[in-house]
Records
---
Amino acid sequence: MKLIIAVIQDKDSHRLVEALVEKNYRSTKLASTGGFLREGNTTLLIGVDDSKVGDVVSIIKKTCQSREQLVTPLTPVGGPVDSYVPYPVEVLVGGATIFVLDVERYERV
Ligand code: 2BA
């Protein structure tokens, strides 16, 4: 068995969970925050048989899209505040960041 951890954008989470339920995959949805943008995103935990990993990853790829996001960098720590002009920069936030881990033991009691 494998545990798929997928960090996705909030906007895609509803569609992805629906697509997973439709194909009988179990998942747990966690509210998370990206370390770089410090904005909310969604982390899904999906436990599946090894043979189903490819199918789940392809569902994630189909449902989650990349988007460009404008980010205004924070004032540099210790830097001159009055002369610092923060220009927004564009960042491409992924469709999904996916980790696949081996599960040592799985029980539902
Ligand atoms: P964030 O950390 O908020 O990152 C959002 C986007 O900002 C990233 O999109 C990437 O395009 C950019 N970014 C992140 N760190 C950067 C840096 N040091 N320099 C320049 N640009 C940077 P994604 O790569 O698609 O990541 C989306 C979200 O997935 C991340 O949100 C984070 O929550 C998660 N993530 C990505 N890689 C991860 C990893 N190795 N471990 C844990 N979580 C990860």
---
Amino acid sequence: MGVLNVTPDSFFDGGIHGTTEAAVAHGMQMVAEGADIVDVGGESSRPGAEPVSLDEELARVVPVVEALAGHVRLSVDTVKPQVAVAALAAGASLVNDISASSALSEVVRRAGAGWVAMHMQGTPRTMQADPHYDNVVAEVYAFVLAQAAAALAAGVPEVWVDPGIGFGKTLAHNLSLLHHLGELVEAAGELGCAGVMVGTSRKGFLGLLAAGPGQEPAPLEERAEGSLATAVAAMVAGARLLRVHDVAPTVQAARLYRPAA
Ligand code: HH2
């Protein structure tokens, strides 16, 4: 899954694909590089990000979905039911829901589309202030599996679960979730989910790991290696959907895990 942020403030590609034309061109480039899905987002969820109005988000997302429809499977990254409805009508068939809310899963059920249920502690504006868990692995996995079970029981035909790396989590929390990912893969499979999705691409914890103790976090440009390493680790653990900015190298790595034709 290639990331297509049509936003001025996303942490990695904010402002780069700000116009519909630039966003569509970048989407087509990711298709050429081998993305199976393009995830279109019109509201940044980076730590500290401010919410965007409904009209603004619709104006950013819908023209891009319309233009890319027919070229690749499209996902919409939104927490607003109205944006999900409009994007599904414009050609998207997957809703990537970082709030894992029943309002969104109901929209998806009515459309017969797919749904990603992601875990987040708090909201993007405040989530990195002081994340706390008694047992991060148990709590995060129990939450996404419960949301998935409810959606499947309600009749959503395709449900993915995502631990939400970086969403209200410290470095230690993120690493624990990645180290135990195989357990989520197994439980999601038993439940009847489509699979586990993971997004580590260029995130802050990779900057901390690249820098070493006591140093400033490594900048975005120095997080490509960590992004690919964590993508491969997630694939080894059984994750089947990786949300990434760097499609070409991740597709090369993914070919190692695809059954030979
Ligand atoms: N991460 C981001 C956004 N959406 N969705 C899922 N399911 N999983 C993730 O890990 C995830 C996500 C954050 O990254 P990005 O979209 O690149 O940045 P921003 O939120 O600033 O637009």
